[in-house]
Amino acid sequence: MPVAEALSAVAARSVVRSVWRRVRRWLVRALLVALIGPFVLILPLNLIQPPTTSIILWRTGQRLVAGKRPVYPRRDAVARDAIAPSLRRAVLAAEDDRFYLHFGFDLEEIQNALDRAKRGRRLRGASTITQQVAKNLFLWEGRSFVRKGYEAYLTLVLEVCLPKDRILDLYLNLAEWGDGVFGAEMAARTHFKKSAKRLTPMESARLAAILPSPRRWSPMGGVANARAAMILDKMRYAAPRE
């Protein structure tokens, strides 16, 4: 091999090694940010409300494209004592009645969902309230393995950093309750013309009933009628804690 070609090959390998080292450094940094960043963002949520969320920003983009007004969804975060206890119980009954018994993942409900799928029924999601908070705060819509895997990690971080009652507070102030409607206070004012603190048990059950599809279902619609009756029945008993 001529000397010039040999030197060129050595130079090329050197460039490749240099580029790979840079890529590796960036990958390590990105991994550290993905692992440590959630702790930095979540720990302050013990004291403050998040100013916005990924799902709110996503809806903002959708509303902008669709020409809806206001472009930014309506939301009014409130303290725990400004939300009717009946709404807290209704949401637990509808979405995650074992919330206080698991560490972010309801293994019993996951197994039930898998059993239903084996019997030929549609595989229904078994997301807990903590998982939904993780998704609403940080993630994009979709069902990729990368997204689900990172959702699982964020769920664990939330459970480590925040007490259960605080996670539920966040959920009630972040949940989507209609087209451009986020949080319990705005949901109560939009659908029932009153504050969240004044919601009745039936109104709470109706709001909880539409959480799986809040932009398609109305709290006064047929689906809410059917689901609210079942939710009210579960609300007669305190959410299990042990």
Secondary-structure map:
Elements: H1 3-42, H2 54-66, E1 74-75, H3 85-95, H4 107-118, H5 129-138, H6 145-161, H7 164-174, E2 181-182, H8 184-192, H9 201-209, H10 222-235
Helix pairs in contact: 1-6, 3-9, 3-10, 5-6, 5-7, 9-10
CATH topology of the domain at 73-128 and 162-235: Penicillin binding protein transpeptidase fold
CATH architecture of the domain at 73-128 and 162-235: Orthogonal Bundle
Q: What is the typical, i.e. mean, pLDDT?
A: 88
The CATH homologous superfamily of the domain at 73-128 and 162-235 is called Biosynthetic peptidoglycan transglycosylase-like
Identify the strand order in the major beta sheet.
1-2
CATH class descriptor name of the domain at 73-128 and 162-235: Mainly Alpha
Helical region count?
10
Give unreliable regions as ranges. none
Total number of beta strands: 2
Calculate Rg over CA atoms. Answer: 23 Å
The amount of helix comes to 55-70%
What does the overall shape look like? globular
Secondary structural class: mainly alpha
What is the helix/strand order? Answer: HHEHHHHHEHHH
Strand content: under 5%
Write a concise synopsis of the structure shown.
The protein is an all-alpha fold. The chain has helices spanning 3-42, 54-66, 85-95, 107-118, 129-138, 145-161, 164-174, 184-192, 201-209, 222-235, and strands at residues 74-75, 181-182.
